[in-house]
Structure formats: structure tokens, C-alpha cells
Design goal:
The chain folds into two domains: 148 residues, no CATH class; 36 residues, no CATH class. Helices cover 77% and strands 0% of the residues. The chain is built from eight helices and no strands. The longest helix has 25 residues. 30% of the residues are buried.
Length: 194
């Protein structure tokens, strides 16, 4: 399970690099990798947080007797991590609704981190450490994406084409204006013709 997580998140990072280098297929790879990560967290977080292989994940003897609350907490952490994966995907692809999803991810990951801290009572269990590591990382990632905004990647990627950047920003501020959409598409065509 951990290898699958590492591979999907590595592919997402690779897709981000590919996008900045204008390599075809970057958006598709980003959508696929972050979608797989969201599904992995959503449905298999209890096994992932306990570091169990998929074969042993559904066997009762794989979990300690007192881990009922930690299984529930792992499932809730998986939901929070799914929000983080989907929110990051929306933000990096400039899709509408990204800020709402990111705020949900920030809030839920912070709540999960605090809950694991309060429920652990000084215990040093693997599941607690895994939940806290992932929740802290997701909180920082989503907070950074929310704080810096979606224009930081746009400004970096298209820094040689300021007219296109301004057209995209104007269109994103008023997405119902067809004139702005046409202007953005014209600037995009000019950019690719150069």
C-alpha cells in the first residue's frame, strides 16, 4: 500500500514538472495520479495508516484490540487526505471550486492532527505517527496552495507571455464574459505560433 502511495504522489510531482516544461500529457497524468491517490486514501486509509499489506487489511487479527478508535481516525484521515488530493488537483489545473475544497482539506487535516494528538495520550503507535505525518503534510501543502494562489504557477510557466497571463486572469475573474474567453484563446494561439 505504501509503495502505491509513493508511486502515485511521485507521478503527480512528475506531472507538475512536465506541466512547467510544456510537455504534452502533463494534465492527464496529474488528474490520473491525484485521482488514484484520492481513491487510495478514501478507501484504504485504515490499512495504509497501519502499514498493512492489502492481503491482511481485512483480517481482524491484523489490528490490535484497542485500535477501534484509531481505525475510525484513520478512515477520517483518509477522507481528509482525499480532500487534499482533489483540492490540489483542482488548484493546479485552475478548475473552479478549488479554494472551497482546499479550505475543507485544511480544516479537516488540522482537526485530524489535533484529534490524534489528544487521543494518543503519550502512546507511540505507528498508526498515530502515520496519521500525523500525512495530515501535517496535507495541511502545509493545501495551506501553501491556498495562500499563494493559482496565479503563481501561471506566472512562472508563462512568464515570457505576459499578455496571455493577463487574459487568463481577466477571464478567471469574470468567467461568463465570452469576449474575455475569446481574448484568452487568441493570446494562447499567438503564444503557440511564436
Amino acid at each position: 500500500m505504501k509503495k502505491t502511495e509513493i508511486i502515485t504522489l511521485s507521478l503527480a510531482f512528475l506531472a507538475l514538472i512536465m506541466s512547467l516544461l510544456f510537455i504534452t500529457g502533463a494534465s492527464i497524468l496529474l488528474v490520473l495520479s491525484l485521482s488514484v491517490a484520492a481513491v487510495l486514501y478514501q478507501y484504504f486509509s485504515f490499512a495504509l495508516m497501519h502499514e498493512l499489506p492489502l492481503k491482511r487489511a481485512f483480517k481482524k487479527e491484523s489490528y490490535p484490540e484497542n485500535s477501534g478508535k484509531f481505525i475510525v481516525l484513520a478512515v477520517l484521515a483518509g477522507i481528509a487526505l482525499s480532500f487534499a488530493a482533489v483540492g490540489s488537483m483542482f488548484k493546479l489545473l485552475h478548475w473552479p471550486g478549488a479554494n472551497v475544497i482546499l479550505l475543507s482539506a485544511i480544516g479537516t487535516n488540522l482537526a485530524i492532527f489535533i484529534a490524534t494528538f489528544l487521543l494518543s495520550k503519550g502512546q507511540s503507535l505507528v498508526v498515530i505517527k502515520n496519521i500525523q505525518k500525512r495530515s501535517a503534510f496535507a495541511f502545509l501543502l493545501c495551506g501553501s496552495l491556498f495562500y499563494f494562489g493559482s496565479y503563481i504557477f501561471l506566472d512562472f510557466k508563462y512568464r515570457a507571455h505576459p499578455d496571455y497571463i493577463e487574459a487568463v486572469k481577466a477571464f478567471q475573474d469574470n468567467p461568463n464574459d465570452e469576449g474575455l474567453r475569446t481574448k484568452m484563446e487568441e493570446e494562447k494561439m499567438k503564444m503557440f505560433q511564436q
